């Protein structure tokens, strides 16, 4: 959550530091998950989605627990995902896997197409010897420096958050309306406030 806030609040801007509209994308959508849960949450999109995303895979060589076999499996999955993102799967390899699964005819062709992906996805593997205060601090410092440099390259001010401030300002005007009559507003906001008021009244 900290890196989400640091990156997306700092560089999620649409104008430059001088107030000029920016023509290209800025910042990044930052998300993540520990361990193999990520494989079943969003890695399919990373591997075969039509958008490309930068991927950081962060591993620890020596864990602070004694579940050695479990940890080796996690490291194996980290390396395997990096390889899959880099190299993907060729049509020939996909067809061979489908044939081995006993598929034929149209099912074979569909499986071959579905199981083929080009790879060449941008992935960085960061390995720490141990997860301790020093290595965690180094990881945070690395990302903070990256965010700062990206802000300079984008030409924006990484140290303000007008979008966040707008939400806070609007919340101050909406809060009293949850317990009273709403002034003039558009129909969508009036409907949403009404739903909130009904829900609060029923509790």
List keywords for this structure.
2 domains; mainly alpha; 203 residues; Rossmann fold; 53% helix
- Which architecture of the largest domain would the CATH scheme give at its second level? 3-Layer(aba) Sandwich
The ordered string of helix (H) and strand (E) elements is: HHEHHHEHHH
Largest sheet descriptor: 2 strands, parallel
Strand content: 5-15%
CATH topology of the largest domain: Rossmann fold
Please tally the helical runs, counting DSSP H or I stretches of 4 or more residues: 8
Task: Please state how the strands of the largest beta sheet are arranged side by side.
Answer: 1-2
CATH class of the largest domain: Alpha Beta
Backbone CA Rg: 24 Å
Number of structurally distinct domains: 2
State the total count of DSSP E strands: 2
CATH superfamily of the largest domain: Glucose-6-phosphate isomerase like protein, domain 1
Please explain how this structure is put together.
The protein has 203 residues and is mainly alpha-helical. The protein has two domains: 2-160, Rossmann fold (3-Layer(aba) Sandwich), CATH 3.40.50.10490; 161-203, no CATH class. The protein has eight helices and two strands. The chain has helices at residues 2-11, 43-48, 68-87, 91-100, 105-115, 133-154, 162-174, 187-201, and strands at residues 55-62, 123-130. Strands 1-2 form a two-stranded parallel ribbon. The longest helix has 22 residues, at 133-154. The protein is extended and about 65 Å long. The two termini are 31 Å apart.
């Amino acid at each position: 959550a900290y890196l989400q806030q640091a990156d997306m609040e700092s560089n999620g801007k649409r104008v430059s530091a001088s107030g000029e509209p920016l023509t290209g994308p800025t910042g990044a959508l930052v998300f993540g998950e520990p361990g193999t849960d990520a494989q079943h949450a969003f890695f399919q999109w990373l591997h075969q989605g039509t958008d490309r995303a930068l991927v950081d895979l962060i591993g620890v060589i020596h864990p602070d627990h004694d579940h050695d076999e479990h940890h080796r499996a996690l490291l194996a999955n980290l390396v395997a995902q990096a390889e899959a993102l880099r190299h993907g799967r060729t049509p020939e390899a996909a067809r061979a896997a489908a044939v081995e699964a006993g598929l034929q005819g149209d099912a074979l062709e569909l499986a071959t197409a579905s199981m083929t992906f080009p790879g060449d996805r941008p992935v960085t593997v960061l390995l720490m010897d141990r997860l301790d205060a020093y290595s965690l601090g180094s990881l945070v410092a690395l990302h903070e420096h990256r965010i700062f440099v990206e802000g300079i390259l984008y030409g924006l001010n990484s140290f303000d958050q007008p979008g966040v401030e707008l939400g806070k300002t609007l919340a101050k005007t909406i809060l009293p309306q949850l317990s009273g009559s709403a002034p003039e507003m558009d129909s969508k906001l009036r409907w949403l406030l009404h739903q909130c008021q009904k829900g609060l009244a029923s509790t």
